[in-house]
């Protein structure tokens, strides 16, 4: 992905009405610091974090809305908007024609001493989680209900990093909560995951840019968050990318974003040194057995849940959108849809889509995600350097 040349073009406000830039202004004027990056696969909108020492950076640091577990616990999940894109006959025919050759990128492991490192850096958090795990050991499934829910679409749901044996291991420790401030000032959260050895997150575009309003801000990522605690620390951001087509159209096929993280807020250590990273896959078939993850508020905001089932395409959703049965809702936005699911391993576990929202007419029984392909994830990774 790194071989494509990119060029960054400043987006002047005075040209906002020009037809060539109209796609960036249909949802509102461009934000300060926003640029457009041209790639061989499409245009990507980019936003950089405030520069250290600037007034904007000082204001963000003073606010620090997600610094403590108490502050994060008060944050509400991002609510879905139900938008679909009905497919034309030509688009339906194109469902069988992949954008490009199927491809993938491998995940990677943190250093062998990663959990020891995290325990040394965040001892109070690890001690608290150890105590919670000991309390749960007597009745580990008491609060979970059934794992199979008899949903409208065939799938199986089960807890993710709820279990002591899982939250410290791959792939679960690479998935976490992404906190942010919406353009209107309200705080919210989505799900996101480390998906590159260059400390890049994948998540949903609507978690990064609020359609019709503008860029979200103050991004803070907490990998493997459970019970409000941050066992591997908290990470700020340096730059974010969304497809320009998300800004102009806001439809599901473009609902993908990437964010590059800065070092942990107290130690300065990169996130991959604590948890490693997941692989990615793109231009894959529409129908694959997939494990989708999320901090779904209708089940629990304290840990992730996983829906496992076959994905498929739908004429009502249009091209490059995949559907899967699942009853998770708000808060799961941006969560990884993993193919080649390989528990307790850094092999496989490739992000092939992220949670976008409910399948049309099936809220709470099925959801959709953008099918990773050249036009979205390849363009984004080219623009940010996955």
How many individual β-strands? 21
CATH class: Mainly Beta
CATH superfamily: Trypsin-like serine proteases
The CATH architecture can be given as Beta Barrel
N to C succession of SSEs: EEEHHEHEHHEHEEEEEEEHEHEEEEEEEH
Nutshell version of this structure?
It comes from Lysobacter yananisis. This protein is an alpha+beta fold and 386 residues long.
What features would you describe in this structure?
β10 and β11 (214-215) form a beta hairpin. α4 (114-121) packs across α5 (123-136). Mean pLDDT is 83; it is low at 1-30, 91-97 and 141-152. Helices cover 17% and strands 29% of the residues. The longest helix has 14 residues, at 123-136. The protein contains nine helices and 21 strands. The strands form three sheets. Strands 1, 2, 3, 4, 7, 8, 9, 12, 13 and 14 form a ten-stranded mixed sheet that branches. Strands 5, 6, 15, 16, 17, 18, 19, 20 and 21 form a nine-stranded mixed sheet that branches. Strands 10-11 form a two-stranded antiparallel sheet. The protein has helices spanning 55-63, 69-73, 89-94, 114-121, 123-136, 164-167, 244-249, 272-275, 374-384, and strands spanning 7-10, 34-39, 42-48, 76-77, 103-105, 156-159, 175-181, 187-194, 200-203, 209-210, 214-215, 217-223, 235-243, 257-264, 279-282, 289-294, 305-310, 321-325, 336-339, 350-358, 366-370. The protein has one domain (66-133, 143-238, 252-373): Beta Barrel (Thrombin, subunit H). The chain is globular, with a radius of gyration of 20 Å. With 386 residues, the protein is α+β, with helices and mostly antiparallel strands. This is Peptidase. Residues 1-32 form the signal peptide.
């Amino acid at each position: 992905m790194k071989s494509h040349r990119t060029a960054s073009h400043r987006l002047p406000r005075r040209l906002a009405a020009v037809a060539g830039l109209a796609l960036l202004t249909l949802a509102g004027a461009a934000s300060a610091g926003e640029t457009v990056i041209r790639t061989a696969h499409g245009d990507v909108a980019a936003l950089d974090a405030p520069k250290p020492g600037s007034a904007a950076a000082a204001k963000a640091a003073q606010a620090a809305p997600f610094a403590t577990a108490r502050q994060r616990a008060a944050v509400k999940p991002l609510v879905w908007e139900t938008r679909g894109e009905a497919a034309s006959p030509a688009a339906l025919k194109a469902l069988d024609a992949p954008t490009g050759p199927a491809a993938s990128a491998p995940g990677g492991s943190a250093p062998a001493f990663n959990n020891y490192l995290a325990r040394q850096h965040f001892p109070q958090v690890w001690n608290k989680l150890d105590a919670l795990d000991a309390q749960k050991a007597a009745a580990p499934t008491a609060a979970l209900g059934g794992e199979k829910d008899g949903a409208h679409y065939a799938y199986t749901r089960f807890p993710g990093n709820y279990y002591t044996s899982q939250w410290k291991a791959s792939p679960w420790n690479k998935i976490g909560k992404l906190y942010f401030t919406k353009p209107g000032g309200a705080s919210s959260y989505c799900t996101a995951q480390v998906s590159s050895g260059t400390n890049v997150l994948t998540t949903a575009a609507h978690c990064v840019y609020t359609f019709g309003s503008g860029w979200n801000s103050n991004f803070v990522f907490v990998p493997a968050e459970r019970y409000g605690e941050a066992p591997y620390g908290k990470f700020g951001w340096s730059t974010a990318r969304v497809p320009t087509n998300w800004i102009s159209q806001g439809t599901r096929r473009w609902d993908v974003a990437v964010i590059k993280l800065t070092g942990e807020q107290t130690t300065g250590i990169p996130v991959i040194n604590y948890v490693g990273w997941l692989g990615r896959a793109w231009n894959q078939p529409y129908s694959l057995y997939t494990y989708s993850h999320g901090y779904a508020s209708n089940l629990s905001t304290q840990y992730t849940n996983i829906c496992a089932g076959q994905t498929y395409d739908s004429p009502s959703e249009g091209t490059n959108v995949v559907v899967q049965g699942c009853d998770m809702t708000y808060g799961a936005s941006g969560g990884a849809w993993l193919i080649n699911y390989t528990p307790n391993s850094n092999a496989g576990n490739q992000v092939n889509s992220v949670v976008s929202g409910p399948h049309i007419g099936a809220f709470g029984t099925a959801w959709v995600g953008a099918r990773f392909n050249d036009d979205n994830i390849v363009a984004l990774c080219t623009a940010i350097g996955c």
